[in-house]
Specification:
By secondary structure, the protein is of the alpha+beta class. The chain contains 10 helices and 14 strands. β13 and β14 (342-344) form a beta hairpin.
């Protein structure tokens, strides 16, 4: 209506009329525009004013009609979007739990958090804000490395390893989609003494990560499974490492058999002891020491090694602490255990989702 009022006034007083450039030839706007021009050329001022009045009334009707249609279809569209998103969420939930007998509750809670983060921040959750640890981020955009220990394709490994890395990728891509995460495979090492093979495998993996020189490197066993999609987001990971406590040695992304857990003000959990090394992150400055400690253990005259237990003592010796992501990010898929040389059917002990 305001537009027509200005243009009609201009046409009446100055003999000018500016057509609406976006009007189609069949629209009422163009027909009224043409009528006004014709009336002006005939000097029919009264007819011009009458046509302008009709044009303004039509403009008001159009405005009311569009508002009515918007109200009519907004609720329907919102419900449809909600249903589609629930279907998408349910699909991811099924994918994330397809190979998990442990922590079904953790996966459900993680999917709920993903929905909540989606509603608040869009597809990529932003996480919570925290104080920047400039030592870890080097006051610039952080970079990430991703490494997976796998015996797939290693001669002499158990037949159950034939497609384990493939299943790992299938699961992660099913949750994260076409993420920028590129996983570097660290071939597993076979050793008859329990724990020596995985310790050597991680030591080799740490060497690769040191050469890559990323801000933070994340390491996984090929049976690690995501609970939710938050970790897929670089924004989430960036916020995570910026909240690293200054005395953090290793951040566990999953595990079990927790002992003496104490929530930290930065949103992580300070832990005295746990089991499991199927998902963890290491700041760049801690990688050389972690590698050296693993190599030191390999030289020990012992029958077994448990790197997921000894690094707690190593952290203490370095005057640092082990922390856990809160809530947990990854769980452990059931199946054949290369460490225990048997099929693992029982559930893991003392599994929690968050503190």
């Amino acid at each position: 209506p305001k537009l027509w009022e200005v243009e009609c006034s201009s046409a009446t007083q100055q003999g000018l009329f500016v057509e609406l450039v976006h009007a189609s030839s069949n629209s009422p706007t163009m027909r009224i525009s043409y009528t006004i021009k014709q009336l002006f050329h005939r000097n029919e001022t009264q007819g011009l004013k009458k046509t302008c009045a009709e044009a303004m009334r039509w403009g008001i009707w159009r405005l009311k009609a569009s508002r009515h249609l918007w109200r009519k279809y907004t609720l329907t569209a919102s419900l449809l979007i909600g249903v589609l998103y629930l279907v998408w969420t349910a699909n991811l939930f099924v994918k994330s739990n397809r190979a998990l007998i442990d922590n079904v509750q953790c996966s459900f809670e993680a999917r709920f958090r993903d929905v909540r983060n989606f509603a608040a921040n869009g597809i990529y959750p932003l996480g919570t804000s925290g104080q920047v640890n400039s030592k870890s981020t080097n006051e610039g955009k952080p970079s990430f490395g991703f490494y997976v220990i796998s015996l797939q394709g290693v001669n002499g490994s158990h037949p159950s390893n034939a497609h384990r890395f493939d299943k790992f990728l299938q699961h992660w891509r099913g949750i994260c989609g076409q993420s920028e995460m590129k996983f570097n495979v660290c071939p597993g090492i076979l050793d008859p003494k329990r724990g020596f093979g995985v310790t050597q495998s991680f030591a080799n993996c740490f060497e690769k990560a040191i050469e890559a020189n990323k801000t933070t490197s994340f390491f996984f066993e090929d049976d690690a499974r995501l609970f939710g999609s938050s970790f897929c987001s670089p924004n989430y990971r960036t916020d995570m490492i910026r909240r690293f406590p200054s005395n953090l040695f290793v951040l566990l992304l999953g595990g079990h058999m927790w002992r003496d857990a104490s929530p930290h003000e930065n949103g992580f959990v300070d832990i005295e002891m746990s089991s499991g090394a199927y998902g963890f992150g290491v700041p760049r400055e801690n990688l050389p020491l972690l590698r050296d400690n693993f190599k030191r253990d390999l030289a020990r005259n012992v029958s077994t090694l448990s790197p997921d237990r000894t690094w707690f003592k190593d952290a203490e010796n370095a005057k640092k602490r082990m922390y856990v992501a809160n809530p947990l990010i990854v769980g452990h898929a059931p199946g054949f255990s290369n460490t225990w040389i048997r099929e693992r059917k029982e559930k893991l002990d003392n599994v929690v989702c968050s503190w």
